[in-house]
Structure formats: C-alpha cells, structure tokens
TrEMBL record:
Pfam family membership, one: SQAPI
Record GO terms (molecular function): cysteine-type endopeptidase inhibitor activity
InterPro entries, per the entry: Cystatin_dom, Cystatin_sf
Domain Cystatin stretches: 23-116
Keywords of this entry: Protease inhibitor, Signal, Thiol protease inhibitor
Region forming the signal peptide: 1-22
Species annotation: Linum tenue
SMART domains according to UniProt: CY (SM00043)
The protein, known as: Cystatin domain-containing protein
Length: 121
C-alpha cells in the first residue's frame, strides 16, 4: 500500500522539542507533556490514517494518549501508546494501540498502528 502523507504546521517540531527533556540525535526520549496540542494532532492523525487505510470499516476514535516517545532523526519519529474506542461508543472499555508517526518538513507519515491491549476497563 502506498504511504499517504499530510501536511501539518511547520511549528510542530519546535513546539514538540520544548516538551522533551534532552533529545540526543537518534535516541528515543520520553515526551514530558503528552497533552501538548501538537502531540494530540499526531495521535489524531495516526487514528485517522488507520481508519482511512481500513476503508473506515470499523472506525476508531481517539480517547487518550497514555505514553509517548520521540526520536530526532531526519525529522522526528513519535511512538505513542493511545487508547481508542470504536465509533461513537460511550462504552468505557477500549483498546490500546501503539503507533509510530514520522514528521518531516511539515508532512506526517504513519509508520505503524498496532493493537497491544484489548478491552481495558
């Protein structure tokens, strides 16, 4: 499947760097503020791309971000653990997914989106 990328604001890298402690080139570092607006945008992008790639058959909805790591490379890699729910369900049970998104020059690319835990309460 051909990767699909979308443009985002060029300020993403600068804003996110301020939410990371020390970011040595190439090493994964924890994201201190996973509630940052740009981190939320990246998580929403990942869920949206997953839905798009699966033809919206069982669309997922972002509930929260549980954990995040960032890696400075030719751009930035973000590895996020996200809690999602199916559709518009108000059920408190959801599933945890791990995703990785590459951001470079304002474009985002979904690297992977994999379920890691199903049916959390």
């Amino acid at each position: 499947m051909k990767p699909v990328t979308f443009l985002v604001a060029l300020t993403t890298v600068a804003v996110v760097l301020s939410t990371v402690s020390a970011s040595p080139y190439g090493g994964w570092q924890p994201i201190e503020n996973i509630h940052n607006y740009r981190i939320q945008e990246i998580a929403k992008f990942a869920v949206g791309m997953h839905n798009y790639e699966n033809n919206f058959k069982h669309p997922l909805r972002l509930v929260s971000i549980r954990r995040g790591l960032v890696q400075v490379v030719d751009g930035m890699n973000y590895k996020l653990d996200v809690m999602v729910a199916e559709g518009n369900s108000l059920d408190s049970r959801g599933s945890m997914y791990r995703t990785e998104v590459h951001v470079r020059l304002g474009a985002m690319e979904l690297i992977f989106f994999t379920r890691i835990v199903k049916g959390l309460n």
